[in-house]
Design goal:
It contains 12 helices and 13 strands. With about 350 residues, it is α/β, with parallel strands linked by helices. The longest helix is centred in the C-terminal third of the chain and has 24 residues. It is globular, with a radius of gyration of 20 Å.
């Protein structure tokens, strides 16, 4: 069994300032913390099956239909239940991309084909993806937009051509939009408006990054094919979203000013960090999310840990090797600390 490697290992590196996990740098909103504390009085009751009120609030927030929604114990929970529900025999994945897609697919015995993103093209998906799709003829594809760990968004025209091609070929298309909240014009990149027209489309989102609550575990997905959602619910235990998570989600969706403040902070800090990192001689890629993907010395992770900075070593991603890293965009004082340490270890 492949060892699970992920950012945010603050238990092993508890002395470090963590740049390996990418959440809203403003931290968890106080209203969300209060909602979790208030939910303690309801712990003697089972959670609400189906997450009705939460689904209504998400549908209003996302401007979509409640009937298209499914909630889960984080986005990863939905990835696994979707794979069990669809039971695909062959999948096409980007390389590199989020590791949990492969973990979920392998758990149902699915064969994996890969589309390798090339460094010379800044790890962007190109037009030849359509030819690979025709050649491989997978049952399911996963696309991450913007991609993790690169932070690169896909050209919208290409994304829509892939969607049409998948519909014609009978391929189920999953698009992970968890990091779209942190790009400048998220609505221009989302496929939400295509859900009704394309029942073979599943969109994945989460509260984790937007509200800095990875410990709560709350994700959601959209699909206009009710039979897909029903199969997912059939392979998931009925109380997979806790009372605390549901109450946290309802409170979080009210935090519109917090979300926009976090976005503007990330835009400013990301530009500043990229400039400083480039000046240090690092190869910085045009990441558009709340993290920065870059290339540096192969042992940069090991150099940073003694300086109490934790960065994400991306060498375990298929398609990458030692020397590729990802860092979160955090508060300015914290980002200054990162740049200070990078300056010291690269000197």
């Amino acid at each position: 069994m492949t060892k699970h490697i992920h950012g945010g290992d603050v238990y092993k590196y508890n002395h470090c300032l963590d740049f390996s996990a990418n959440c809203n740098p403003l931290g968890t909103p106080q209203s969300v913390k209060q909602a979790i504390m208030d939910s303690v009085d309801e712990l003697s009751d089972y959670p609400r099956v189906g997450c009705g009120p939460l689904k209504e609030a998400i549908a209003a927030y996302e401007h979509t239909q409640k009937e298209y929604l499914i909630c889960g114990n984080g986005a990863a929970d939905l990835i696994f239940s979707l794979c069990r529900a669809q039971n695909p025999k062959k999948a096409l994945l980007l390389a590199p991309t989020f590791a949990e897609y492969e973990q979920a697919l392998v758990s149902v015995g699915c064969e994996i084909a890969r589309y390798y993103l090339e460094e010379t093209a800044d790890f962007c998906v190109r037009e030849d993806y359509l030819q690979i799709l025709q050649k491989e003829k997978p049952d399911i594809i996963f696309l991450c937009n913007p991609n993790n760990p690169t932070g690169i968004t896909m050209p919208q025209g290409l994304l829509e051509r892939i969607l049409r091609s998948c519909a014609e070929l009978g391929i189920f298309m999953v698009v992970d939009e968890c990091f779209l909240d942190f790009v400048r014009e998220p609505e221009k990149h989302s496929l939400k408006k295509k859900l009704e027209e394309y029942p073979n489309l599943f969109l994945l989102k989460a509260f984790t990054k937007r509200y800095a609550i990875p410990g709560v575990r709350l994700g959601y997905g959209f699909c206009s094919d009710s039979s897909v959602l029903e199969r997912m619910e059939a392979v998931t235990q009925p109380w997979n979203v806790s009372t605390m998570a549901q109450q946290a989600g309802l409170a979080a969706l009210e935090e519109t000013e917090y979300v926009e403040e976090g976005r503007q902070l990330i835009f400013r800090e990301s530009a500043w960090m990229k400039e400083k990192m480039t000046q240090l001689g690092l190869k910085v890629y045009p990441s558009e999310a709340n993290y920065i993907f870059f290339h540096g010395p192969a042992d940069l992770f090991e150099r940073c840990v003694p300086k109490e900075i934790l960065i994400r070593d991306c060498s375990n991603y298929p398609g990458l090797e030692k020397g590729y890293f990802r860092v979160a965009v955090k508060l300015h004082e914290q980002n200054e600390k990162l740049i200070q340490v990078l300056t010291e270890v690269l000197d």
